[in-house]
Amino acid sequence: MAPDFLLWLERTTGSIALHESLWVYPIVESVHVLTLCLFLGTAVMVDLRLLGVVLRRVPVSEVLTRLRPWMMAGFAVMIVSGGLLFYAIPVRTYLNIFFRIKVALLALTGINAWIFHRSIYLSVAEWDLALVAPRRARAAGAASLFLWAFIVVAGRMIAYNWFDPPEVH
Amino acid sequence: MIPQRCIKLLPFFEWCEATSIGAAIRNSQWLFPVIESFHLLALALIGGAVLLVDLRLLGLGLRSRSVAELAREAEPWLTGGLSVMIASGALLFTSESIKCYYSPAFWVKMSALLPALVFTFTLRRKVASCGEGAIRSVWRILTAVVSLALWTVVGTSGRWIGFSG
Q1: Average pLDDT, whole number, for chain A?
Q2: How far is B67 from chain A (nearest CA, A)?
Q3: Strand, coil or helix: what is A161?
Q4: Which residue of A34, A145, B28, B111 sits 20 to 30 Å from the alpha carbon of A17, by its own alpha carbon?
């Protein structure tokens, strides 16, 4: 069962209005999908740089600092639009297995990024232009790419109710 | 909404819908979302490759690098992303060609996709390859704006195909 808070949230005017709106819900969803270009597009470029397959002559720190504002702006739009999508359909989304997988993977990418910044990235000056970045940096880039790919797939699958518990229907 | 001259295309759409690939995707519960996931992953890759260059044309992003260098770096990822996009898009299309035929969003998408592709691989490529000072910055800005506008229409109308029908 969903927590009382979500059962209450689902009955709020805003949630019902968003859920039943003809235009606003599709617009919010489109913004969420298209912001993939801004957020994930820039994040993928950073990850590919860590793997040494793009922009090899540009220092890692430069790629990261120059693209970070765009990545963060995209992430903010993702959180807001994603939050609104959850607000529109809270109970069903909460009970959906793909949503839960997505949240778990999001937590893992957060941990991955946190570890990267607290460990190998601290010594970036030593390997900023290295032909092959240290193993831990490459591992962080690869992990990020994989996690985000599965987050996109899980996100897309939230639309399907294959494994939804019966009380949702 | 459907252009008159496209009426001739209906048999082609019907043929696509009738292909065994289209039928297989239509009859499978999970093939469509899986193919669509690849379509979305390629979207992110294309977004990154396009933005890297378009932001630079606007004087943003990796400003210390030349536009030409960034365009050269982004090109394989752009063409790679587009290949996955077109292949996955074609598969999705065969599974619901008739729906697409009657979807205004589909026609808007195709009408923007062709100029977007042509523009990207002709004028935009030309402008991006120009050295600093060889071209007035207004042309660079205009190129980035046109590119971003065209791709935004492609993306938005593409998402809208899913809302129709």
Answers
A1: 94
A2: 12
A3: coil
A4: A34
Q: How many Å apart are CA A22 and CA B127, to the nearest integer?
A: 41
Q: How far off is chain B from A4, nearest CA to CA, in Å?
A: 31
Q: Please return the burial class of A160, using the count of CB atoms within 10 Å of its CB with bins 0-12, 13-18 and 19+.
A: middle
The domain of A57 spans: 4-168
Q: How is chain B split into domains, by residue range?
A: 4-161
**For residue range B136-153, what is the model confidence (pLDDT) as tens digits?**
899 999 999 999 999 999
Total domains in the fold of chain A: 1
Mutation target to probe the B interface, by most B beta carbons within 10 A, among A28, A44, A53 is: A44
In this complex, do B62 and A38 lie within 8 Å of one another by their Cβ atoms?
no
pLDDT band at A168 (very low <50, low <70, confident <90, very high): low
**What would the DSSP string read from start to end of B22-73?**
HHHHHH-SSHHHHHHHHHHHHHHHHHHHHHHHHHHHTT-SSTTS-HHHHHHH
Residues of B in contact with A156 (CB under 8 A): 33, 36-37, 40
Cβ contacts (< 8 Å) between B33 and chain A: which residues?
156-157, 159-160
